[in-house]
Amino acid sequence: MAARVMLQQCLSARLQVKPAEGDRAAEYVQIQRGTLIYVCFFKGATVDLIPKMIKTLLNVKLCEDNTGNHVSVLDVPANILIIPQATLGGKIKGRAMQYHDNIGKEDGKELYALFVAQCEKELALNSKCAEAQVVVKHGTYGNRQVLQMDTNGPYTHLIEF
Amino acid sequence: MAARVMLQQCLSARLQVKPAEGDRAAEYVQIQRGTLIYVCFFKGATVDLIPKMIKTLLNVKLCEDNTGNHVSVLDVPANILIIPQATLGGKIKGRAMQYHDNIGKEDGKELYALFVAQCEKELALNSKCAEAQVVVKHGTYGNRQVLQMDTNGPYTHLIEF
Fold first, then answer.
1. What is the tens place of the pLDDT at every residue in B13-66?
2. Average pLDDT over residues A132-139
3. Is there a contact between B146 and A155 if contact means CB atoms under 8 Å apart?
4. Over the stretch B73-95, which tens digit does the pLDDT of each residue have?
5. According to the model, what pLDDT value does residue A46 have?
6. Rounded distance, CA A115 to CA B64, Å?
7. Nearest Cβ partner of B158 from A59, A88, A159?
């Protein structure tokens, strides 16, 4: 396995991208209706993986349209919030979690940046998405992902690559 | 694999347990700080599995205490919200999700009820939990899990049984 992704659907979500520091308030990004993509890379993941992941994730039919049918996030079209979530790589050992299979920090950061960029690019190229002005927002790699979300059912799915 | 569980940590969470109907408003349960346990059973899961699952989930050290150390949900002690989430059993095929390995509805409902009961029992037997008056709340099996949550980092983990 090179990557593990968890998807949840939301009505709205807000994610901290910069914690408060001194007098400066914390900074957040938010989306309205859309998909949360939690992503974790494992050792051995390479840049070749990213186009395949994005293609799969943007086209899998897990979003409800206004008639209750499941269509892709591109077809709704809906917003996307990408959340780096290295903890998804944890394996239980005794009472603790170990993360031995997770990718190293620098490589993970690079793949994450590519993942975000590729996702933004695909949405920009999609005329339906451009017209609906849906957005891709994302968390800061390595930070604590302070998240609030409101759902009509998270409809949680796991996809491994 | 007989069951898949996803864990997220929350500051508070609210889950619909009965949808609105006619003049009757929807009903919700909520917890303050605690752990969300999303659970999915697969074909072949039996009642023998439940005590092992509960033991593992209540003792794995994934909750932050007030000093930032990770301890078990029993040791915080923190609240628990159990969410049936059959979608976690999905496997991607083409652009769609298939749920062929998921347990049947009646068997799943029975295991879910046992899982909830066993979890409630363990918390009731734990003097620290009893004293702190932490609670176990849970969603309605088979319903849409209308969920709101607020986190200080969901710290998402997957545990398979």
1. 999 999 999 999 999 999 999 999 999 999 999 999 999 999 999 999 999 998
2. 97
3. no
4. 999 999 999 999 999 999 999 99
5. 97
6. 30
7. A88
DSSP B143: S
- A-chain residue closest to B139, CA distance: A153
- Whether the CB of A151 is below 8 Å from some CB of chain B: the reply is yes
Residues B143, B137, B144: CA angle, nearest 5 degrees: 15
Q: Which two tokens stand for residue A20?
A: 């408060």
d(CA B55, CA B42): 19
At A86 the three-state DSSP class reads: helix
Distance CA A65, CA A44 (A): 36
In whole angstroms, give the CA distance from residue A11 to residue A55: 23
Structure tokens, A26:
């914390």
Does residue B102 contact residue B86 with C-beta atoms inside 8 Å? Answer: yes
In tens, the pLDDT along A58-108 reads: 999 999 998 999 999 999 999 999 999 999 999 999 999 999 999 999 999
Q: Which two tokens stand for residue B120?
A: 């409630």
A155 phi/psi in degrees, rounded to 5:
50, 55
Cα distance from N-terminal residue to C-terminal residue, chain A: 6
